[in-house]
Design goal:
- The chain is α/β, with parallel strands linked by helices.
- The chain is 43% helix and 19% strand.
- It has helices at 2-12, 16-35, 102-115, 119-122, 164-174, 187-198, 258-266, 274-279, 281-297, 312-315, 322-333, 337-348, 357-392, 409-413, 417-429, 448-462, and strands spanning 44-45, 57-65, 69-79, 82-91, 127-133, 137-141, 144-147, 179-186, 202-208, 212-219, 235-239, 402-407, 439-443.
- The N and C termini lie far apart (67 Å).
- Bound molecules: adenosine-5'-diphosphate and magnesium ion (MG).
- Magnesium ion (MG) binds next to loops.
- Residues 66-69, 209-210, 281-282, 321-323, 326, 408-410, 413-414 line the site of adenosine-5'-diphosphate.
Length: 463
Amino acid sequence: MDCFIEEIISELTLPVPKLQELSLRFEEELENGLLRPDAMLKMLPTFVFALPTGSEVGKYLTVDLGGTNLRVALVDLLGNHKYSIRKDSWPIPDSLKSGHGTKIFTFIAQKIEEFLAHPEIEAELPLKLGFTFSFPIQQESLQHGCIMGWSKEIECADVIGQDAVKLLQESLHQRGLDISVEALVNDTVGTLLAQKYRDDRTGMSVILGTGSNAAYIERCSEIKKQNFPKNDQQLTLINIEWGTFGDTEAEPLLPLTRFDVTLDSESKNSKQQKFEKMISGMYLGEIFRLILCEAVEKGIFNWTGTDETKPAASVSPYSIKTKDMSDFHEAFVSENREKCLEIIAEKFKIECSTETSDKIITQLARLCESISLRSCCLCAVGITAVYRRLIRHDIIKSTDLFTVAVDGSLYQHYPNYSKILQELVCQMTRGSDEACCRIVLVMAEDLSSVGAAAAIAAIENIK
Ligand code: ADP
Ligand code: MG
């Protein structure tokens, strides 16, 4: 019984030397992505040339379309690194995640209209809008961006290749709303800009929500695949689209387990975003479920109920959410045995008797721990690769503090995730200097809206 669990845990465990090796490879791929348009990492230029200083002021409407939630906000930039924000959010209905993509934009406009129904918000019209879009976009300017494809199990092929700004602007016009879409940013970029507004040392952002991705500060002269001035010292932001790390390798680059392979082959974007699938909130619960399925097949656990009445919920894909794993792990850490048993019965559908329950709780918690730790480790691979690149290219100094803004429910809520990730990036970059770690991870909760507003304000400042 223990053997099986131990074996899986050891397959999920990534030793530090392996992480260092992956991080070096990641750093090479950062460079390749700036040189070639067909590289493993898309390394998308964002056309953000005006980085906020924290002095910007103004009121802006913002929309953030994530993989799970839609967030609308009225952001008031107050200058002096301060802002106030009034926001609302809605889950994105599953019915919109496939079929015609225009339905998503109609939904956004509808929710903006609802948000504006508050008289004091409506009084602010006309408003400029900053649009945060958590999917890859090919930009030619801050005001345009073609949708390159979907991810995170969304599949609306008809709008691929279309301009996300135009699609949103048309939906807003159809409702007669006096709002102009002035900036389009990826969520990573929005998060980075927002944290930059708060703290000038910010050089990178990471998203750990439904999906996972990151952005960082780069010199325009390094973007050699596109027509950027070659000797331009101007800084800009790059959206790495890091979820594709490892995708195009014939020899598997990532230490995939059979569970990752199954998850990938059964997902809507098979063979794509393999790195993201090992890291993000959309997938960790599913990896856990696939492990449980194998454990049940091997007779290590039983589904609750007899064979004939096998609980459909546990065998259907994505029926166990990362939040369920996170709640269970939290209950385990806080020694809330009753809550553990409740989640095991109701969410995991695993049979537990009085004699076996302690052992099962511990085994399941160790599995959750290994899956979430592996996610942290891979995230640390990406962060340390960017950090080394920035030092090597003299964009930051090794003696300076380097702030990384991190957003997303996985990072915010998974027990100890943020603490472990911080420890890992320190461990991987400390070198001979045992005491100091220059990388500081900062929680940038729901901040991408502030960044979208700061992007508009920063351009207005230099006009
Ligand atoms: P979005 O990706 O739409 O911006 P979030 O950042 O809120 O939204 O991330 C949603 C993802 O986070 C979902 O995949 C969900 O499973 C996961 N999640 C939600 N709550 C928790 C939690 N308490 N612990 C861990 N993961 C969570
Ligand atoms: Mg998000």
